[in-house]
Amino acid sequence: MSQASKLALIKEMLDSAESSLRSAKQMVNELVGSNGKNLFAKKAETLEEVADSDEGAKIIEGVFDGEKMVDSKEKTYPVPANYASKSKLIPGDVLKLTVKEDGSFVYKQIGPIERKKVVGILTYEDSQYKVIASGKAYKVLLASVTYHKAEIGDQITLIVPETGESEWGAIEAVLPKDITDVSTENTF
C-alpha cells in the first residue's frame, strides 16, 4: 500500500470517528437535554396540550424526532414511515395528531422547521440506511429508500435541519446516474 493510500485511509478513518462522536453526543443530548428532558419534548412544551375536538377525537401536538412524535410529557407516538417519507419530515417538525374515536391516528404537519439540502452517498451500516454528506452520516427511513428505489452508492439529495445537529434526514431525490457520471468524468 502506498504512502498516499495509507494517508487517505487514515483520513477516512478519522472522519468516520469524528462523525461517530458527533452522533453519540447528539444522541445523548436528545435523550437527556439540558434539564434532563428530551430536547424534542422540551420543544413540544410550547405546543398545545391534549384537547378534545367536537367529534370526540383527541388532539395532541408534538415534535418529530426522526422516527416518532414526542409530546411535552415525553410520551412518544408512532409516525407511519410512509407518511414521514412522503411528507419529507425531518427532526424538529411540529405535528398534530388526531386520535379518532375508533382509535385511528391521523397526522398532519403543522410547523415545518427551516431546512437545507445536502448531497451525499447512500450507504448501509449497522442495519441502517445512511447518507454520508458534508462529513456526517444521516440516518434515513427504509420506506424512503424503497419509495425512491435508491441503491447503495447512489447520490442522494437530502433534506436536513438548517441549524443544529441532526441524526436524521429526509430523501428529496435520487440523482440520475447519467448526471452523476458526467460530474465524475469531469474530475479526472
Describe this structure in words.
The protein has five helices and eleven strands. It is elongated, with a radius of gyration of 19 Å. Residues 182-188 have low confidence and may be disordered. The protein has helices spanning 3-32, 39-44, 81-86, 142-147, 177-185, and strands at 51-52, 58-64, 68-70, 76-78, 94-99, 105-111, 115-125, 128-133, 136-139, 155-161, 170-174. The protein is an alpha+beta fold and 188 residues long. The chain has a domain at 39-111.
Determine the oligomeric state from the structure: single chain
Averaging pLDDT over every residue, what do you get? Answer: 83
Principal-axes geometry comes out as elongated
Task: Return the string of H and E elements.
Answer: HHEEEEHEEEEEHEEH
Largest sheet: 6 strands, antiparallel
What is the strand content?
A: 25-35%
Helix content: 25-40%
Class from helix and strand fractions: alpha+beta
Number of helices: 5
Rg over CA atoms: 19 Å
Number of strands: 11
> Which runs of at least 5 residues are low in confidence (pLDDT < 50)?
182-188
Distance between the termini: 22 Å
Quick description:
This protein has helices at residues 3-32, 39-44, 81-86, 142-147, 177-185, and strands at residues 51-52, 58-64, 68-70, 76-78, 94-99, 105-111, 115-125, 128-133, 136-139, 155-161, 170-174.
